[in-house]
Fold this protein.
Amino acid sequence: MPFADITGHEQSISLLQAILCNGRLAHAHLFYGEARIGKSMTAVRLAQALNCEQPSQTEVQDSCGRCRSCLQIAARTHPDYFVIEPDPNAATPQIKIEQVREIEQQLVYLPLVGERKICLIDDADRLTIGAANALLKTLEEPPGHSLFILVTSRLHALPITIRSRCQALRFTTPARTQVEAALILKQEIPPADARFLAVFTDGRIGEALTVNIAEVRARQQECLTLVKPERLTSSGTILSVAESLAKTDRGEETLAWLARWIRDLVIVMVDGDQDQILHLDQLADLRRYAQRANVDTLLTILNDIERTEQQATRHLNMQMALETTFLRLREALSLVPAGVSA
Ligand SMILES: [Zn+2]
């Protein structure tokens, strides 16, 4: 696939193409920006553009996406193209020194078919100290035919010594309308679902393309059920729901959904930008809640949920956190507890 297949990043891609056309490629480039917005995919397209057997005939250098070389790069079987990334199944995903050493041994040899041996290092911020030092030595004296493309969503976590040896290119999150359009085109989902996913993932196209919309919609419905007045007025229901969610390990996820719903409600209450509302199909209900809800209490709940999320990895009583959230939400929505006369 050519660069045009990528959602957003027009500026970064134009710059890369200008660099390609003018033969100004450095030995190491660093792509940084939010997670899952298309940085690695752009790196793959760059590798393809450099090796394509049938490059586009326009004035900008681009790949065809169909030739043997393009397909081999996509499948990671091209003899001059290597990918290093953390083991996603490891408890602490890291890039180990052995992985860097292995690539260094490959880079000693001249490219087999193309002009460059290309090494893509994804999540480069996950290099161990040993791996980073090994890589640094190579970056200090890179073989003339080598090209490193480092990708990171946590620039601050990448050693400055490595950063300073790369030509850095910043990637910004694509516009939400672009993500929506891409989802409609590539996933063939209805516009309402595409909009929902684009807001839900905050424009992270990589995530939006991989989540299952049916599953996300099912979770949304569960969340909407939880905030129904008849659920919140009964203290007994609150306690049993909190217990079952905590027991099935779904507390964190539920809190995240509640936070999304509360944010929407606050936007409605302060007459904010409707474009930012996730549950747009619930607007009528949100307006009804808004009439009797208390913004201050809602904002406090949001704050508390955020704090809980930060503590979630440490010892935390999730059941109690859920109970508290539901009880405070009941208060924020001015719902009278069942059995108490108003
Ligand atoms: Zn090609």
Summary: Residues 108 and 143 are 7 Å apart (CA to CA). The pocket of zinc ion is lined by residues 52-54, 63-64, 66-67, 69-70 (CB under 6 Å). The chain has three domains: 3-172, 175-210, 212-332. The mean pLDDT is 93.
